[in-house]
Structures are given as C-alpha cells and as structure tokens.
C-alpha cells in the first residue's frame, strides 16, 4: 500500500480526461462507493487499490494512479461484483476496458498477463485454435529470464499430463484461420 | 435430440478427457452431437483483455460457422469460458443491432455472417434441463452409492447470465449426481472463483483461492467440475499448494460427464479415466 501524498487540489481537479478512460467512466458514473464490489472480489486481498477505490479514481480521472495499480490486471472475470452491484453497473466489463487501455498504450498492467495474452492470441491468430502445450512453451520462454523458477512449478503439472496421455504435441486439426479477422480489426483501429 | 457441438481448444489438449466423456455420455443417451466444422478459438479471457472488437469477433466466427450447418439448433458448449464468450455475442445479437452490425462488418473479411439465430448453451444447462435427472436415472447401471461428491460450478457458466441456475447458490448438479447414486458434500464454495488464468500469471494470488476451495472440500471423495480451467486449477497444483500451506488438500477432481458416465456403465477408458488407476477402481466398485 503506497498512499502517495496528494495535495487536496489534485483530488478536486481531475487530470486531463483521457478519452479512452471516458468509456470506463460512463460505465461507473452512478457508483455510490458502497464497497459491495470489494467485498465480493476474490482477489481484493492482493490488490493495492481495492475495486471500490479504483472506481473512485476512474470518476476522478486519476489516470496515473489507475494504471500504476495492479487492480484491473488481477480481475479474474468471476462476475461476482457485476452480479451484486446495487447500481447494476457492468464492473467486470469496466475492468476489461482498463486492461484493453493498458494493453493498447503499453502502460501499466501486469508483465506476466501481457506476455500470456499475447502468446495466446498469437497462437489463435496463426492456427485458428490455441494449442495449450505450445502456448505454455512460448509463455515460459518469454517469462523464464524474468522469473527463473517458473518452469519448475509447471514441470510437475507437465509430467502429470504426459502420464495421463493428455498432452500431445501433434497439432490439432486446425480451425479456420483467424488471420483475416485479425487484419480487419487492425484496419479498423483508427476510429475506436 | 440433436445439438451442434463446440468443444473449444482445451478439449483438444489438456482437457481431452472432458471431450471424450462428453461424447461418450451423449452417445449413450442417444443424443447426436454435430461438431461445428472449422470452429475457432473463442478468445477465452485473453481477447477481452486486449481488444474489444477481437473479443466479439472471435466467438462470432464459430457462431457464424454453426449457422451454416443448422441455424435452428442449439450449440452444446462444455467449457464455461467458451460458453460465456459465445453467449455474450448471442445476447448482443438479440439486443444491440449496432454492435451486431460492427461484428458482421469484421466477419465479412472471411465472408461470414451471424444472424443471432443459433443459440449457445452450457453442457450443464442441457444436462439439467433437456436430459434431466430422470433421463440419467433410466441409464444407471453402476450406482455411485457411497461416493461423496462436492459439486463445483465455478463462475462463468453461472455469471453474469442467469440462465439455468442461481448464480449465488447453484444446485443444478445436485439432482444429476443424486440420480447417479452419489452423496453430496455440503459446502459454500461451489460458485467461488478458482482464479482462472492467474494460476499461470499470478500463482501467489491463485494458490490462496484454490487452497480455500480444496480445504472446504475436505470430507468429500471427489470434486465434480464443468470447466477445463477449473479442473486444471483445482487438480493440477495440489502437491505444490499442500506444501505451501503445510496441509494435505489433495482430492480427485473429475468432470461431471465422467462421473455420470461411470454410473451409466460406460467403460473408464472411454471417459478418459485411466482404467488401471486405483482411483478409478475405487469409483467403479
């Protein structure tokens, strides 16, 4: 928990509103800061800013603090907060918006998540389907220099899977290629 | 009965036994499954963490492919994450024509189109509502009596779309497992999050969530799941988690169709269960 010393004005005067953040702000506009989201979040114990605080930061336009936090990266899409929010706000979707903004601007977020998602989508784009064994191999190749012990935790699981005959290195019958879909989306990027 | 079938990527690799058990069980129930030809990855949680359009277009591809086969059929989806992604596009098609047009503009790149007719449904929805405990009961040859099972639902088959069960206190597995002769383990962790892909990216957060679930399952002989991610998180790291907390929380974690299939007399190997393992022997006694 690093509570940065803020001048009172910094809380009163929102920073330059970020147009991307506007989409998120619209989603949480009627938040009443009741804290049901924080109380429902299975990952709140590991977050530096709780979900309730994050929504307040969004309303105040505090981009820097939002994207320095690990909060949105730690959302595991369980939808408990969405289900229980007394204002009916789409909070899980708002977390996804923040992940997308972080991914697009290459700022904030979580290095491991970013590496994992990008390995995942590369695999899907290329083969139409994700082959999990290759995905893990690629992810570990990216992460091991940063977290040298990581492969050891997964090697046990890998051995279990090989024993159970669950892992095959054969490429599965491929689905349709998704390259055309990815390319079309890439070409639409300008008018978000 | 006839359904289109969307296995999803996991069921081709780490969750192959889920695919085997689903097909074997449906075959035994005389339910026809037609695999969607050329189906593609739904994007899981990766697409929605990166790009809004990608998160909509990826599942839409398979929905559009499904419509080329039979637009009046329902799609049976065993994986909860796949189900949610497909369902989200189905809901958009029903209520948000502008976004549907945007999706179809992307699909046009592959000469595909989704009209919103074909409907994705979770396997548990189909088991609980279409086949039902009575349908299972008629097929039981090897009762699971004496086996105490903790039904685990996870998140995305229940939330945010309230379709076939109570998203806070689900019960749809109870009658199915009871029909197979199993006893139910009463617990409050049935709809708690297993941490999804955090097991890969933030294991220290993940182990906390999984530990709580496994600890609460103590007293049961097995956990029943309906999602490949949940199954892998709950079963794949038990040794590591037990040693982290200095408590033995090991327990077998099966897919619901494996347990129901055994009770229906389907051979263990056809359900992706290792017939030689002591565990399976104990189950089929």
TrEMBL record, chain A:
SUPFAM superfamilies: alpha-helical ferredoxin. One of its GO terms (molecular function) is iron-sulfur cluster binding. Its EC number is 1.8.98.1. Residues 22-50 form the 4Fe-4S ferredoxin-type domain. The keyword Metal-binding applies. GO terms for cellular component: plasma membrane. Pfam families: Fer4_17 (PF13534). It is an enzyme of class 1 (oxidoreductase). Keywords: Iron, Iron-sulfur, Metal-binding, Oxidoreductase. PANTHER family: HETERODISULFIDE REDUCTASE RELATED PROTEIN, IRON-SULFUR-BINDING OXIDOREDUCTASE FADF-RELATED-RELATED. This is Heterodisulfide reductase subunit C. The lineage of its organism: Bacteria, Pseudomonadati, Thermodesulfobacteriota, Desulfobacteria, Desulfobacterales.
From TrEMBL, chain B:
It comes from the Bacteria. Residues 3-87, 149-234 form the Cysteine-rich domain. One of its GO terms (molecular function) is CoB--CoM heterodisulfide reductase activity. Keywords: Oxidoreductase. Pfam families: CCG. Transmembrane segments: none annotated. The keyword Oxidoreductase applies. It is an enzyme of class 1 (oxidoreductase). Its EC number is 1.8.98.1. This is Heterodisulfide reductase subunit B.
